[in-house]
Amino acid sequence: MSDFIYAPPQHPRLDIIYQDDAIIVLNKPSGLLSVPGRLPEHTDSIASRVQERFPTASIVHRLDMCTSGVILMALSKTAQSHISRQFQQRATAKYYYARLEGIPTATSGSIDLPLRCDWPNRPRQMIDFIDGKPALTHWQVIAEQPANSNNNQQASATVLLKPVTGRSHQLRVHMLALGTPILGDELYASAQGVAAAEHLQLHAAMLEIDHPLTYERMKFKVKPPFSID
């Protein structure tokens, strides 16, 4: 993707779905980095935008640039430490929706395939049973869209994805391994699958954490920008 030009969406600048003294939860659009990139032209990100208004804010987890949905930032060091520990100990809960290129042969399952960076082809990731880190994803088909020859629409399916681990590109590579890459995925889908969607059809729909101050279990949801029927 040497010809890639970073042009993140500008409106709304921030889509805040919850905020208190300890945390801020946002709906990140597809096309916006979670944190600033290395190049000067890649400084715009959900983290830098939040820090313009809340200088103490810090990132506790990330979404791929092309992935939309729920992302949470801490507003104090205490909150950051508490929530980061929850992610490390897998005490959080989360699920995603994705639209796939093709329809899986089963209606649900689990994918347990270790992943590592494909260094010569960064940022692509790859399955590696020797050097890869454990990666586990549970998945379930919730809708199927048959092929339509009248408008050249290929068959597709909508799935609910529940990652147990949080490896880079985990859901994208695991769906590729299933034989049904995510629509709009410029790294892993076919040319037809890329052309079938305006952007990556992967959305972080729900995140559940224990509040770092009150310890109350809190659940945040955002509807995907694409149809899941």
From TrEMBL:
Belongs to the pseudouridine synthase RluA family. GO terms for molecular function: 23S rRNA pseudouridine(746) synthase activity; lyase activity; RNA binding; tRNA pseudouridine(32) synthase activity. Coiled coil: none annotated. One of its GO terms (biological process) is enzyme-directed rRNA pseudouridine synthesis. InterPro entries: PsdUridine_synth_cat_dom_sf, PsdUridine_synth_RluA-like_CS, PsdUridine_synth_RsuA/RluA, RluA_PseudoU_synthase. It comes from Moritella yayanosii. It is an enzyme of class 5 (isomerase). Its EC number is 5.4.99.28, 5.4.99.29. Keywords: Isomerase, Lyase, rRNA processing, tRNA processing. Dual specificity enzyme that catalyzes the synthesis of pseudouridine from uracil-746 in 23S ribosomal RNA and from uracil-32 in the anticodon stem and loop of transfer RNAs. The gene is rluA. This is Dual-specificity RNA pseudouridine synthase RluA. Residues 23-176 form the Pseudouridine synthase RsuA/RluA-like domain. It catalyses: uridine(32) in tRNA = pseudouridine(32) in tRNA; uridine(746) in 23S rRNA = pseudouridine(746) in 23S rRNA. The keyword Manganese does not apply.
